[in-house]
Amino acid sequence: MSNLAKxxxxxxxxxxxxxxxxxxxxxxxxxxxxxxxxxxxxxVRAGTAAYAKCRPEASRLHIEATADAGSNTRxxxxxxxxxxxxxxxxxxxxxxxPDENLFFTPNLDGCLVTVxxxxxxxxxxxxxxxxxxxxxxxxxALGRGPEIRDVMENRLKIFxxxxxxxxxxxxxxxxxxxxxxxxxxKKDFDIFEYDRGSNQQxxxxxxxxxxxxQEVYYxxxxxxxxxxxxxxxxxxxxxxxQERDVEDRGFFGLSKPQIVRRKQLEYTVADAKKFWP
Length: 277
Hints:
The chain is α+β, with helices and mostly antiparallel strands. Strand 2 (28-31) and strand 3 form a beta hairpin. Helices cover 16% and strands 46% of the residues. It has one domain (3-196, 218-236). The protein is globular, with a radius of gyration of 22 Å.
């Protein structure tokens, strides 16, 4: 059984064991709105074919969306870019197996993912607020608490992204799907939930190089459709990165010493649970 088939059969079982590293691109088009908004609105056509390559690595699965069918699994994929909101509405369907019943979006590092609609026909948004402009009043408010500016700024960005999603959601689909299940409450997955305390330390070592200790958290969102209804899951995972300059004297310790850079990278899952509905 392929790793994507395992993810389809046991979403939380796999997501609690492996960090999901998700990358890729998709064909999109910009959507216009007469209502005020700060971010670009980008629509992904659900009918555009996207396929997933899945490569298992130590403690993680690298899932890459591609246009290459090959022997890959057909999926729904929602990309991202700076200062934009991307949206997709998967086509209504009721088939068995992973093909066309898996959804992925790239990992979150400050972004916001929102899901709304009904389990039969959900709408998913991936928002990024990089470069968003603050008003003079907002800048003044942020300046009053310099010690907590990062927290206040992130909360303000989340508010602005959510507000822009609200504007985007007012742009209706060309052919609204006919569904039998009522809409569920809209839910968001933001940095305050998936970032459990990212930090970094950089220290000058005795070789005049920089030793790095970095702990960074990322979010992942994926969806699984069974019996015609989508369920979305969220994951927080941690990457611990260490880089050191060390003196290497060879295998037997008899060689002329050389300064080499040693790197270590470790992935661990912090949490994985059902997200929506």
